[in-house]
Specification:
Number of strands: 9
Number of helices: 6
Radius of gyration: 17 Å
Largest sheet: 7 strands, parallel
Structural class: alpha/beta
Order of helices and strands: EEEHEEHEHEHEHHE
Shape: globular
Helix content: 25-40%
């Protein structure tokens, strides 16, 4: 976190952070972890904002709609009193082979995983302060795609390319851009979709949230343009 001097002592300053897709399983864990650390957090999501969430929530926002996201981020930054960080974790997954699948699936994965991250990052730039950070959620599968994962893996490879290019672009502005690359995150949706899978090596949302919090913090001030693989032995 940022540090400022006040009356002879070091003062830890809370960060102002937007979590895109913050109302999903991973998003809720990230919002909870960041809030617990004393940060001011705003979740922005397509899902309706719950009455009680624990931090600011802006629901009903299509994260693939550039104008809607820009407007929501303006409201969120004003409510937070500025912006120090953005977490882009909106996304989706599908499995289908090229033989039996639809080419439309490639468009769907692009829109869900890469377009949302690009729009969110662009919308955040006018509000991000120097020393700020963007954290994207990619996927370990992007570097080692198995059968049936081509549309998903390609879109997540695009997220990593966005991370590296944007990190280079924003380096001079003192804004860092990094990504986490999970294997499989242990969410209710993934358990439902893979009922027979061995979940012992799946990454808990709370564990992923801790890495994301690190990449947003001053402790990672010398880290930019990298993807950190998240996995457990098992």
């Amino acid at each position: 976190m940022r540090k400022g001097k006040g009356e002879g002592m070091i003062k830890i300053m809370s960060l102002k952070i937007i979590v895109a897709g913050g109302l999903g399983a991973l998003g809720r864990a990230v919002c909870a972890d960041l809030s617990k650390r004393g940060n001011n957090v705003a979740a922005v999501d397509l899902a309706p904002a719950p009455e009680s969430f624990g931090c600011l929530a802006f629901g009903g926002v299509d994260l693939a709609d550039e104008a809607a996201v820009a407007a929501a981020y303006g409201r969120a930054a004003e409510a937070l009193g500025g912006l120090d960080g953005v977490v882009n974790l909106a996304g989706g997954f599908l499995w289908e082979t090229m033989r039996d699948g639809s080419i439309n699936s490639w468009d769907r994965m692009y829109a869900t995983n890469l377009r949302t991250a690009a729009i969110s990052s662009k919308a955040a730039l006018p509000h991000l302060s120097a020393g700020g950070a963007i954290v994207n959620v990619g996927a370990a599968a992007a570097a080692d795609a198995a059968m049936g994962m081509a549309p998903y893996a390609a879109s997540k490879a695009g997220v990593m390319a966005l991370t590296q290019a944007l990190a280079d672009e924003l380096r001079a502005k003192d804004v860092r851009v990094n990504a986490v690359l999970p294997t499989i995150i242990d969410t209710p949706t993934n358990r439902k979709d893979m009922p027979d899978a061995d979940t012992t090596a799946w990454v808990k949302p709370e564990a992923a949230a801790k890495v994301i919090a690190f990449l947003l913090s001053e402790e990672s001030a010398c880290v930019t343009g990298v993807g950190i693989r998240l996995s457990l032995a098992g």
